[in-house]
Structures are given as C-alpha cells and as structure tokens.
Design brief:
Blueprint: E1 4-8, H1 21-33, E2 38-41, H2 53-67, E3 72-76, H3 82-93, E4 99-103, H4 112-123, E5 130-134, H5 136-139, H6 145-151, E6 157-162, H7 169-177, E7 182-185, H8 191-196, E8 201-204, H9 211-222, H10 226-242, H11 250-258, H12 275-287
Parallel strand pairs: 1-2, 1-8, 2-3, 3-4, 4-5, 5-6, 6-7, 7-8
C-alpha cells in the first residue's frame, strides 16, 4: 500500500548547479533509517520545473537504485504538456518505481474535458499506480471532488494528493470515490486533521527535516489516536509554518543547508530566502531542537 508518511524529497545541487548524487544518497539513507514509508522523487519540492527531462529521469533512476527495495519510491511525472507527461511516464516506468504523482496541468487552464483527456493519456502510458495531485495554489486548476470521482474510474488512478488544506474534502472524496481510493494530504499544517478525518497519509515537506516525528504523527493519526497525533504534531508545527514562509522548496533547502545536510543551492528563478525569512526558519529549527 502506498500510504503513510511520505517525504517530498528535495533535489540537492552542487555549487556549480549540477545534481549532487552523493548528497542524494545520504538523504535516501536518512529516510530509510528513520522509517519514512515512501520517497516522492522529483515533485515540486524536488524542483522538477527546473530539471531537464534527462535530469528528471536520472534523479528518479538514482533514487530507485539507492532505495534498493528498502523504501518505496513514487516519481513525479506531471507536466502542463500531455505529451511530455506521457514521455516522462514511459521513460521512468522502466526503472522500478512503485507509482507516479501526476500534477494537474498548470498554466494552460484546461477545460474539464481537457483534464480528463490529459489524465487518460498519462494513465495509459503505464500500468503502474498513479496519484492525482491537486494543488490549485500553484496550478490555477482545481480538481473538484466530482471530477476526481470521474478520474478515479481509470483503473490505475488509485488516489490523490490533496493540497488545498480543505479537510472537509476528505468526506466528500470518500463518498464519491469509495473507501479504497487513497487520500494523501499535501498540506503539512492540516495533515493531522486530514488523516484523523479518514486520510491515508501525507506527502510532506516537513518530513525532510523531522522524518521520525512525522512518521509517528502519521501512524497515530491514521489509527485514530487524536491525542497522540496532536502531541507529535505540536513538535512539528513550527516547521509546518516556517517552511512555507516563501515558495517551497526555498525554506526547506535553506533549513537543511543551515544544518549542514546539503548546500544552499537552487536553480533560477528560485533564489535564497530573504533575511527576515531566514530568521523565522532559524527560530523554527530552534523550536524543533536542532539549534541552540
């Protein structure tokens, strides 16, 4: 089952802007060690918009090889071009990923029919399971529950990463799509409530920094332990807030660099955070116990 605590993994870069595969290996081992259930490779947090297609495929391939069947790997395969999404899916499928995360076509503002046909073509490009990814704050395209229910009829679309932060959608999606359709939160600040309402897990940015605590919170929430989940989430809350003070993944990469885990390197148009944001992130790291 593709459920539980999943990390939206960052893509580390060297000082000259190339993918840092040595640090990628260290990050994969880190998540295996601390019990993360799955790695989402080259999603938005992995800076997919600025990777070339060859780099995108190579990072996923490397992640699968490094995981070595010790942790599940879900690959981002979305694009605002259906043809590109199909090609990415076909190329990545041969490397042993466990599934795909397919963001809604961004910028184009497709019609309902266009969205359905987009997902039809991409789902037919591989028999592997695929998650829809609804993040209208970035795509300007909202997958309403009624549309999700229609897309859920495609045999290998098994669930959705729902990043609106609207916890009420859980009940509506369950009613329309059935209990077997997997519901993953894509919004760290509301993920606990999402899972307590019936969600099956989270694809988390915060898990880049606190995978063990995130895993414990997710496990508690998914088994309905509201008190236990709240206790763990209290430790995560400062990071939930600080890591979205600027566009993701700017804050999380800065935080990881501050701790010496990666280098503070981005690809334009992303740039390092403003000084005021750095101070907020640093205070969150102190609250999390990483800094004095």
């Amino acid at each position: 089952m593709l459920t539980g605590s999943m990390v939206a993994l960052v893509t580390p870069f060297t000082s000259n802007g190339n993918v840092d595969y040595k640090l990628l290996a260290e990050l994969v081992e880190f998540h295996i060690q601390y019990g993360t259930d799955a790695i989402v490779s080259v999603g938005t947090t992995g800076e997919s918009p600025t990777l070339s297609h060859d780099e995108h495929v190579d990072v996923v391939r490397a992640t699968v090889e490094l995981a070595d069947n010790r942790i599940r790997v879900i690959a981002g395969n979305g694009s605002n071009s259906t043809q590109e999404a199909v090609q990415l899916t076909e190329r990545i499928a041969q490397y042993g990923v466990d599934g795909f995360l397919n963001v809604t076509p961004y910028y184009n503002k497709p019609s309902r029919k266009g969205i359905i046909e987009h997902y039809r073509h991409v789902s037919e490009a591989s028999d592997l399971p695929q998650f829809l990814y609804n993040v209208p704050g970035r795509t300007v395209c909202d997958l309403a529950p009624e549309l999700v229910a229609e897309l859920a009829q495609f045999k290998n679309i098994i669930g959705i990463k729902e990043a609106t932060g609207e916890v009420a959608r859980v009940a509506e999606l369950q009613r329309l799509c059935g209990q077997d359709f997997l519901l993953l939160s894509g919004d760290d600040p509301t993920s606990r409530e999402f899972m307590l309402a019936g969600g099956h897990g989270v694809i988390s940015v915060t898990a880049n920094l606190m995978p063990q605590t995130m895993k414990r919170m997710v496990d508690a929430a998914c088994r309905g332990d509201a008190e236990g989940a709240a206790e763990f989430d209290k430790k995560l809350a400062p990071l939930h807030d600080a890591l979205f003070i600027e566009a993701n993944p700017i804050p999380v990469k800065w935080a990881m660099a501050r701790l010496g885990w990666i280098q503070p390197n981005y690809r334009l148009p992303l740039t390092p955070p403003e000084l005021a944001s750095e101070k907020v992130i640093e205070e969150a790291l102190k609250a999390a116990g990483y800094l004095q």
